[in-house]
Amino acid sequence: MGNVWRMIAAGTISTKLIMALLAVFSIVSWAVIVVKVRQFRRLRQESDRFVDRLEKADRLEDAFHSIMALPESPFTRVFKRGMTFYGDLRPAARNTGEVKGLLPAQLEVLRLVLEKEEGDERDGLTGGLIWLAIFATVSPLLGLLGTVIGVMNSFIGVSAAGSSSITAVAPGIAEALVATAGGLVVAIPAAIGYNYLTGRLNRFMGELEGFSSEFIGALAREGRI
Predict the structure, then answer these.
(1) Cβ count within 10 A of residue 56
(2) Of 25, 34, 96, 158, which one has the greatest count of Cβ atoms within 10 A?
(3) Does the pLDDT of residue 58 top 80, yes or no?
(4) How far is CA 120 from CA 8, 77, 82, 106, 213, in A?
(5) Using 50, 70 and 90 to split pLDDT, how confident is the model at 127?
(6) Under DSSP, is residue 54 helix (H, G, I), strand (E, B) or coil?
(7) Which has more pLDDT, 224 or 61?
(8) SS3 state at 110
(9) Which secondary-structure segment (H or E) carries 98?
(10) How far apart (Å, rounded) are the C-alpha atoms in residues 66 and 50?
């Protein structure tokens, strides 16, 4: 490791710039991973509390008053949005006279509203993940660029010195390969973190979409639609 640091310190300005940029990518990617892991862990706890309150309630009105006391979370926001929009539709349903609950068109609008809320929650939770994808893709290419530039400089130096011995070529080649190694060191954790967090996000969104379907089902069981 000490030899690597010495090669970077004694390297060309292009190698130093690329390694500095890769260091920034690494710091940002690890910060994103830590923040998102904590966020999904908190969402798991909020989901458990939400489901516990919902299961203890006999009717949606009881669940609404119980869930209103919980901190804001994607589940509570979707539930409150669904209940609020349903309350806005009920007067229109009553005014039809012949229809006890919601009209089919109103029910479809309710589904769309829930899907819109789910989409907004997904957009909020994906923040930061795009950077992991960018770092995982760009870092190896940036490292390869550093290697190509380093090899070019090495051969230019050999040509200028008029010697092609291994002792003349090896230091420059070694310095060039450090950039590739640095790119992989940044890209591998970023790729692992992106795929892991994307899987967590997809599972969470599946639970949220499942709740929206259960919300419609609860309305049906209570004779509201």
Answers:
(1) 10
(2) 25
(3) no
(4) 45, 10, 14, 21, 17
(5) confident
(6) helix
(7) 61
(8) helix
(9) none
(10) 9
